[in-house]
Fold this sequence. Notes:
Chain A: This is High-affinity branched-chain amino acid transport system permease protein LivH. Chain A: Keywords: Cell membrane, Membrane, Transmembrane, Transmembrane helix. Chain A: One of its GO terms (cellular component) is plasma membrane. The complex is a heterodimer. Chain A is mostly helical. Chain A has a domain at 47-258. Helix content of chain A is 77%, strand content 1%. In chain A, helix 3 (46-72) packs across helix 12, helix 8 packs across helix 10 and helix 12 (279-297) runs antiparallel to helix 13 (301-315). By secondary structure, chain B is of the alpha/beta class. Chain B has helices at residues 2-24, 43-59, 80-93, 105-118, 148-160, 175-190, 210-218, 230-242, 263-266, 286-299, 305-323, 333-340, and strands at residues 30-36, 63-64, 67-75, 98-101, 122-124, 141-143, 166-172, 194-201, 223-226, 251-254, 274-277, 343-346, 349-352, 363-371, 377-386. In chain B, helix 2 (43-59) packs across helix 10, helix 2 runs parallel beside helix 11 (305-323) and helix 3 (80-93) packs parallel to helix 4 (105-118). The A-B interface holds A 45-47, 50, 54, 147, 154-157, 159-160, 174, 176, 249-251, 253, 255-256, 292, 295-296, 299 and B 38-39, 75, 79-81, 84-85, 88-89, 92-93, 105-106, 109-110, 113-114, 117, 129, 131, 136, 173-175, 178, 203.
Amino acid sequence: MSEEVTIARTTARDDISPAAQVRRATFVLVGSAVLGALALPWLSTSYATTLAIEIMIAAIFASGINLLVGTTGLVSLGQGMFLGLGGYGIGIGTTVLGLPLWLSVPATLVLVATLAAAIGAVCTRTRGVEFLLITLAFSQMFYGAAIKLRLTNGSDGMSGIPRPDLGLLGLNADSPVVFYYYILLVTMLAVAAVWRIAESPFGSVLAAIRESERRAAAMGYAVSSYKVGAFVVAAVTCAVAGILQSQYTYFINPDSMSWQLSGEGVLMVIIGSTTAVAGPLVGAAVFVLAKQGLSVLTTEYMLFFGIFFMLVVAFFRNGVVEAFKSAFRSKP
Amino acid sequence: MKRTGILAAAMLFAAGAASQVALAEDLPPLKIGLMLPYKGVYAVPSEGIDRGFQVALAEYGNSVGGRRVEVVRADDELTPNVGVQQFNRLVQLEKVDLVAGVVSSSVGIAVSGLADKAATPLVLVNTFADEITAKFCSPYVARTSFSANGFQYNSGKYWATHGIRTAVIMGPDYSAGHSFLDAFKRGFQEAGGKIVQEIWTPFQKTKDWGAALTQASNSGAQIIYSFYAGAEAVQLVKQHADFGLREKLPLVGDHWIYDQLNWSALGDLIVGPEFITTYLPTAKTEANERFVARYREMFRQDPEVNAELGYDNGKAIMLTLEKLGGRIPADKSQFIATMRGLVFDSPRGKVRFNASNSALLEKVYVVKIKKDPAGNLLPTYVDEFAGAEDLPGCTKSF
């Protein structure tokens, strides 16, 4: 990989603009990341595969949050509610109503989208700290419902959530390796979709709203509908993460809707970068690995994790990805 | 006489162990993952469980069938998602042969589903919620303590037949709280008692019981019957006293409300109230005296209920491993099946398992703490009753 990067750099020095240079390096990096991800189960231990699964699920979650935080400039502290709703959706669909998974998943996503449109219509009337608090309030409401309702089994949560039946392909999704590829596929699709949306004209309007909401409105865009749209897409993305999370652990409980989880998601976005596509991915990886690594070293890892986070914010003001990019640009 | 008996048994055991050493010399050590919430609300009880567990292993010289036994610790932080991560770490990275421990029922439910899929034996220490060995039962999961119903159902009957007609129940709003207090409620109501009010406080998030205690004192009940553990128990007992309710509306509960590990924090508040417990450190049985002696030797203090539960957990594992000659069978559910067949004398009494791998309680004591002239706190026997059977609900056959 280092060899390829060098090639990219030497050619770039001659006749290609710095922007193209970064683009090419990114292409190589993404390419090797995908190849590495494909080969991972053969190259490493089963535990690394499990960690990778956790990273990818976190990355989808963070991508959803980034569409609000990074692209649209709305900092939400309630995205955990959609993660939880995703898990509870298929939990109720499959274990209570007895529906097959292929029906439960789309039904859940449609329901989450509808609900997010309603919640988003209320929340996006506010901005800044108010937006943060109202999303937090909604998520606490759903948390409360999940912990109180008999249907969702209270704090026990719902267990027995099925993984996809891949019997037709002769595969068993209970196997970590098979499940890994399933997650990898969904992650690539989800991240690509979020990326396309952020790059689309729709995404450009969201960015315009982030930069100056008044100017965007003055240009004739229906700002509030765009914000609700971003809210819905973010919610559905988080719900996808929730579905995968509940399949990974075979269960869902109210903890998956906690505000701490929403906060962790925002942290991942900030660690990675709010402005780069790969930001949430890198942020999720750094978050999961740092937490895991520190917790193996010491039981007081939360303290060091806090320090680590402060260092990241202090030294990589725009996140790890942007820091990498600027380091690359400043090379002669 | 007794002494020579023990000595002879020890020598026989040593000879047996020595002969097995020769056989199994080249086998790698057995690894047991011990997952407990070492920090947070249940930090103190977890410490007790960990120590009891160590005592059980030390009894076997930390080896069985000639194989050394290693313990790998993990902290589940009382959170199911962290529990799942730590369980995966223990099984996949540390390659443990089985996982022991687990205090919170919520974490227990999450990891037992995982143990079932991963076909890894899971030997739960606490996780008293009835559904763990009922609705969520698995051939790979056993519990060495008891179920909420086993502990509290007959307690309800006991208090209802000992002069208490009305009660308020108060507890943490999560699976164990509901399981314990619902079991009490069933027994209490069946014996003619009346639950005037139910008060549930958010688990791990409550610091102030003012509102709950005001509601309770306005209810007109005779007692508050409650379950709390760890730091929450200390807070409640203190605030209950601050509200001046000790005479008017006594706080009745179990050995976690008045946990021995909290006595130093409670001071004289511990003297007086009656509560139920599964373990009497002063019990004059051989199993208990041996346990107390070894515990004192290792930790220079007296064991209490959490240590006893940890000991039972370790003891059941070691007895099972001993029966299997230090080898985990290829079909790992056979490990749990072997454990299910055990009957042994534990410090708390005779331990046996039911068909869905849940250990049963032989008896429950009612005790009261008295202070002797020298200022020592002594648990004093008041009464006892039998433990109840578990609730049905396990539909799997194994």
